[in-house]
Amino acid sequence: MSKDFDVIVIGAGIAGASAAAHLAATHRVAICEMEDRPGYHTTGRSAAMYEPNYGSPPMLALTRAAGPEFWAGGFLAKRDTIFFAPPEQEAQFQRLMGLQKGMEEISVAEAKRRFPFLQDGYARWAVLDAHTADIDVDALHQHYLKLFRQNGGEMHCEHAVTALEKNGGWTVRTKSETLRARIIVDAAGAWGDVVAEMAGRKKIGLQPKRRSMAVVPGPEGEDFMRWPMVGDVGETWYCKPQSGKLLISPAEATPVDPHDAYADDMTLAEGIARFQEAVNYEVTRVERTWGGLRSFAPDGCPVVGYDNRNDGFFWLIGQGGYGIQSSPALSRLAAALVRGEAPPADIMDEGLVLAEISPERFA
């Protein structure tokens, strides 16, 4: 393997892998991944949906711009989403309706027709999003890893970065070898600020937040795999059919340090209890649980762009819970910015404001 590259991307999750795949078409690119395989942390622990009405304004624009590539690549399977709003969540309901694009308020009776297990009296309002879909996360991630290899990129797993030094170009030290590049892309997920500090940057205040998931059996005799994804507009629980089971999450966002995440049993129990308040189906058994990290900048928007020192350090972190659903567009945008090109017109047409994702907002 080579030691000298144009670009070294740190992190092989969906953000790093997808951006690296595009960059490798025009640059000599390596990925340094600290685990023994790509996507071990957040990307490999996602119940991702394509939800074009979910996220901060920049993520809404990026997700909507990602739609055509998702559908053309066969990475989506249609699944509607229904959001329920009990009386105490009127403010969240009004906010959702103010930001939505293409969603439809439906009667509670219609919601119950589509989701028969809705508990009578739980919801005052219901909102249908008919533009959502399941994402085949593994297929998407493998697509970008394959494209990366086809474009000549080099993957270096079990290469946790131990030091970054600026001496003309960048020197990247790992336990096993030393690599060099003109440009560093920090796509380290929850460890994004750790990598930035190695490079002599001021931390932006990236905060990893844990989300827990329970896998439970669905109701016997019910074709529950045809159910929509359901949840409350206040984001205190959601439920999604997947792989012949039901995934239930308390939708928590508990601040934690970067680590190999696991589910919090007490938080899961509380989330399942809230789910059961909304449905007339009793969860009697949890088959397994898992946890993942979603990492946010202080303002909830991603951090994408060159550091203001203009020394080849590029930020690509803070995607929160929207990194997978936005990745086809965000990766094209990041690659264009790394190359010094204009951002893709189709992304800007969705209303993206570059200043809202620029690292300069933290300068």
Layout of helices and strands, plus pairs?
Blueprint: E1 4-10, H1 14-23, E2 29-32, E3 49-50, H2 57-73, E4 76-78, E5 81-85, H3 90-99, E6 104-106, H4 108-114, E7 125-129, E8 133-135, H5 137-150, E9 154-156, E10 161-167, E11 169-174, E12 178-186, H6 192-198, E13 207-216, E14 229-232, E15 238-242, E16 245-249, E17 254-255, H7 265-278, E18 288-296, E19 303-306, E20 313-317, H8 323-339, H9 345-348
Parallel strand pairs: 1-2, 1-12, 2-9, 5-14, 12-20
Antiparallel strand pairs: 3-8, 4-8, 5-7, 6-7, 10-11, 11-12, 13-16, 13-17, 13-18, 14-15, 15-16, 19-20
Helix pairs in contact: 1-5, 1-8, 2-8
Overall description:
With 363 residues, the protein is an alpha+beta fold. The chain has nine helices and 20 strands. Helix 1 (14-23) runs parallel beside helix 5 (137-150) and helix 1 runs parallel beside helix 8.
Give structural attributes.
363 residues; alpha+beta; FAD/NAD(P)-binding domain; D-Amino Acid Oxidase, Chain A, domain 2; 2 domains; 9-stranded mixed sheet; 8-stranded mixed sheet; 20 strands; 28% strand; FAD dependent oxidoreductase domain-containing protein; oxidoreductase activity; oxidoreductase; FAD/NAD-bd_sf
Could you provide a short overview of the structure?
The chain is an alpha+beta fold.
Helix proportion of residues, in percent? 25-40%
CATH topology description of the largest domain? FAD/NAD(P)-binding domain
The percentage of residues in β strands lies in 25-35%
Overall, the morphology is: elongated
- What Rg, in angstroms, do the CA atoms define? 21 Å
The CATH superfamily label of the largest domain reads FAD/NAD(P)-binding domain
- Just give the CATH class of the largest domain: Alpha Beta
Q: Number of DSSP helices?
A: 9
* Helix-and-strand structural type: alpha+beta
Average predicted confidence as pLDDT: 95
Number of strands: 20
Name the poorly predicted regions: none
Write the CATH architecture name of the largest domain: 3-Layer(bba) Sandwich
Q: Major beta sheet, specifics?
A: 9 strands, mixed
SSE order, one letter for each helix or strand: EHEEHEEHEHEEHEEEEHEEEEEHEEEHH
Beginning-to-end CA distance, first to last residue: 37 Å
Number of domains: 2
